[in-house]
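Hi, here's the filled form for the chain we discussed.

Project: internal
Contact: R.S.
Residues: 128
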Amino acid sequence: MSARRETRRSDAAAPELEESAPRDFEAFREAVYEVVLAIPPGRVMTYGEVAAAVGSRAARAVGRIMAHSGGELPWWRVVYADGHLLPGFEAVAIDRYREERTPLVETRDGIRLDLRRAAHRPVRSGER
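And the returned structure, exactly as it came back:
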C-alpha cells in the first residue's frame, strides 16, 4: 500500500463512510437525528428520504448512523425504499408498527410497509 493511500485513509473521520458521507459528518449526523426524531408514530421515511431531507444523497450514511445510534432513534421508522422490513428485526418492527398503527400490507412474501399511506413528508423551512 502506498504512503499516499495510507495518508488518505488516516485522514478520514469515518472510513466506512468515505464514499457517501458529507465532509462534516458530525453535522450530518445531528441533522439526521433531528429528521428521524421528528417522524411521527405511524409514519416512516426511507433512508434516501432522510438523506434528501438533510440535503444529501448519502442514504447509506443514514443507514450507518441508524445502525450505530444505540437505540436512541426510532429505527423502525426509517425503512427500505421497497417497504420490506429490516432483516433480523422483523418481529420487533411489526410489534412497533402495530402499536403505532403504521399501515402494513400482506404480500405472498410476507408483511411489508404500505409506503404510500405510511410516508412522512416533512415540511421544509420556507414551504408553509
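Let me know if anything looks off before we file it.
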